[in-house]
Design goal:
The chain contains 16 helices and no strands. It is an all-alpha fold.
Length: 280
């Protein structure tokens, strides 16, 4: 029970962007005597490393995942992310997507496993196959991570109305979850109604205060919400607060570049140059 609780805490930290705190806890869980806990911890660890663009560490962790179907799905996701975000490897992407589909067809029994479905769906969504991704995710409406990825899929195709409907249907089951609260906040942020973006800001702010570790993601999320309600100076202030905490964070630098334009500052080129140097 304690290990399951720790696993849930690690998942929440990962979603809130407190990556290093999540990694520290997950590393100890990978040594747990329960093989199922070990596997789930290793997969979350892979995803944590991917979020930091630490592809070598992610691929290394994949090799120790026990079940072959999960190992194949996790490895394909690693390879896809590495090929997409490392210069000179984009030509490998179609082959990786094809292998993902092959793994799905050869492991039809595995679609009952929400972790396998999540990994495969995440790759397909990154590759632009949102419809295929959503068909898989729809198989697990009771899984919080499949729910969250479905919300992300709807937002990626500018269907915040569908995301709102899914949030409404899932509220009773998930509303106390940090992942649900983040999904709701991002849906509100992407809504055309300004009042909802303001509500999103307060949700991100509350989550920031409740997070036990510093999260650049939540600070950037607050800033993005402020931009959506045209409070550009406030957004810029939040982003500079984030920059003081981590001056090489790509997400912070990218949004500062946008903020500099919105605030009519002449620092756009500076931030873009830093972004290219530190996050090529």
């Amino acid at each position: 029970m304690a290990a399951n609780q720790t696993l849930a805490e690690c998942r929440d930290l990962l979603y809130m962007g407190a990556i290093q705190a999540s990694i520290s806890k997950l590393t100890s869980l990978t040594k747990n005597s329960n093989s199922e806990i070990q596997t789930e911890a290793k997969i979350l660890l892979v995803r944590a490393y991917l979020s930091q663009n630490k592809f070598t560490s992610a691929n290394s962790e994949c090799q120790s995942i026990g079940p072959s179907d999960l190992q194949a799905a996790a490895t394909n996701l690693c390879l896809y992310m590495q090929s997409k975000y490392q210069t000179g490897k984009a030509d490998m992407l179609p082959a990786i997507v094809a292998d993902c589909r092959k793994v799905l067809s050869e492991n039809e029994h595995s679609i009952t496993n929400p972790t396998f479905v999540y990994l495969s769906s995440a790759l397909l969504l990154h590759a632009g196959f949102s419809e295929d991704s959503m068909k898989l995710l729809a198989l697990h409406p009771g899984n919080i991570e499949c729910f969250a990825l479905m919300i992300q899929a709807y937002l990626s195709i500018n269907r915040s109305d569908m995301a709102e409907q899914l949030l409404s249907r899932s509220k009773k089951a998930f509303e106390d979850s940090v992942i649900y609260q983040l999904s709701e906040a991002w849906t509100n942020c992407c809504s055309s109604a300004g009042s909802k973006a303001e509500k999103a800001f307060y949700s991100f702010e509350e989550l920031t205060m409740s997070c036990t570790s510093t999260s650049m993601n939540l600070l950037v999320s607050q800033a993005v919400a402020k931009m959506h309600i045209a409070q550009y100076p406030e957004a810029d202030g939040i982003l500079h607060e984030a920059l003081d905490k981590d001056n090489s964070n790509g997400n912070v630098l990218a949004n500062l570049a946008i903020s500099s334009v919105l605030n009519e500052k002449d620092s756009y080129a500076t931030y873009v140059s830093q972004l290219r140097d530190q996050n090529p």
